[in-house]
Design brief:
single chain; about 425 residues; alpha+beta; 7-stranded antiparallel beta sheet; 16 helices; 18 strands; globular
Length: about 425
């Protein structure tokens, strides 16, 4: 058995991708329904984790299989516990599918300088499973000096934050830059997101998988950039958010057409929130940032302006908003760069645009986006398309309303927070059934 396992462990990954399903079919039915390791391995392979031989969960999966395809009881329990540790929100149903436990998002309120804010975030991230997920998805090394040069051009304060983050994690700057810098990030499967920008408010649903969800909502006021609030992505990036001037922004994946070494969209969102007061200023910055992939950026500001910026590695186009502007996961001006199938995105856009005639209030529109029965709420988490959070901002009231999937609403005045009044909440909870 040891010799057989050794040969399996060191065989090429592509061969293992072919062997693993047949190995798993050898399981006894009771173990099969309890553990569903075929499902777990499929999720891991979606993120190309299988290409990282050192990644612990993959080695553990290999370690379960003997030359006859049977499981050793001790190892069954060990892998189940380790996979659960690595992806703590995933547990396995007896009926053979995934069940999601409650999941949480930490609320951080940071008012130090960027280095100190990064230090606090790094200490909080220590031993968090998301670091293992990003470690599996990112390169071990990048050109940290080139990344730093881009940061210094658009948002130099983020270099200090990344340095503090590394100190908090006890990592070198080069390692921190590769792991969490948002530069030269390999392709990760598509995200789906839907946003509605009206003169009075901005609302966005973020749809992906909890396996790559940071689990942090950060309000930061460093004095070296504008005060901001938003959901973290790869630690210092943002899925979506707002700033003290009333600019709201979010990202929407389109395609990998023309993919190149450059900045990730979530770092771009952070940079414009830190630096820009209006849609016009944000669109200008997005025209000059070196983008790695094709994304839409949904923008709205306190002046009632809105726009969608179609940003690709070689061309950037801005589409000004109408009374109600929808932003989803396809281009209109740069349509040749879309994925082959955009029907899903087109349906969501049409539905959002139809809401304009209803003259919804901020609270009504937010309730519609977060409602599990809404056409904009998705539950296909196994295939990277499940709603994880709803984020919104009222330009008139300067108020944030946000919630996790099927969770309680966090509702607070960002103006009051920027004036120094902390909110009492420290955590949000969501539930995915």
């Amino acid at each position: 058995m040891n010799n057989t396992f050794s040969s399996l462990k060191h065989c090429p990954v592509n061969k293992m991708k072919l062997l693993l399903p047949s190995m798993l079919t050898c399981l006894g039915r009771s173990f099969f329904y309890r553990y569903r390791l075929d499902k777990i391995s499929a999720v891991l392979m979606k993120f190309d984790i299988a290409r990282k031989p050192a990644y612990e969960s993959w080695s553990l999966i290999l370690g379960l299989v003997s030359h006859r395809g049977f499981f050793i009881g001790r190892r069954v329990n060990y892998i189940y516990n380790r996979v659960r540790d690595i992806f703590p929100m995933l547990i396995v149903n007896l009926d053979g599918g995934f069940k999601m436990t409650d999941y949480t998002v930490h609320i951080m309120q940071l008012r130090g300088d960027n280095y100190d804010n990064g230090l606090k975030l790094g200490r909080s991230l220590q031993n968090q499973s998301i670091l293992q997920a990003f470690g599996a998805a990112t390169k071990p090394e990048i050109d940290a000096e080139q990344m730093k040069a881009i940061y210094n051009e658009f948002a130099p304060q983020l270099v200090a934050e990344l340095e503090g983050l590394g100190e908090g994690l006890r990592l070198s700057f080069k390692k921190t830059a590769a792991l969490l810098g948002g530069y030269d990030v390999p392709k990760i499967d598509a995200m789906g997101c839907s946003a509605m920008i009206a003169p009075a408010y901005y609302i966005r649903n973020y749809d992906f998988t909890p396996a790559f969800y940071d689990g942090y909502f950060t309000m930061a006021q460093s004095g070296q950039g504008l005060a901001t609030a938003g959901y973290n992505l790869q630690a210092i990036g943002r899925h979506d958010g707002i700033n003290e001037k009333g600019l709201a922004a979010g990202l929407h994946f389109v395609s990998f057409e023309g993919y190149r070494t450059g900045l990730s969209s979530w770092i771009s969102v952070r940079m414009i929130l830190e630096s820009c007061a209006t849609v016009e200023e944000a669109a200008y910055m997005l025209r000059h940032i070196p983008h790695a992939a094709c994304y839409n950026f949904s923008l709205g500001d306190a002046r009632g302006n809105s726009a969608v910026v179609e940003a690709s590695p070689d061309e950037v186009v801005t589409r000004a908003g109408d009374e109600v502007l929808a932003c989803v996961n396809h281009y209109e001006a740069l349509a040749g760069k879309n994925r082959p199938s955009i029907e899903h995105s087109l349906r969501r856009k049409s539905y959002i645009e139809s809401l304009g005639a209803q003259r919804l209030t901020h609270a009504e529109a937010f309730g519609l986006f977060k409602d599990r029965q809404s056409p904009l709420f998705y539950t296909d988490y196994d295939n990277l398309f499940g709603t994880l959070h709803t984020f919104s901002y009222s330009f008139q009231e300067e108020r944030v309303m946000t919630s996790l999937a099927q969770g309680e609403v966090l509702d607070f005045s960002f103006r009051e927070w920027a004036e120094g009044k902390d909110i009492p909440e420290v955590m949000m909870t969501g539930f995915i059934d």
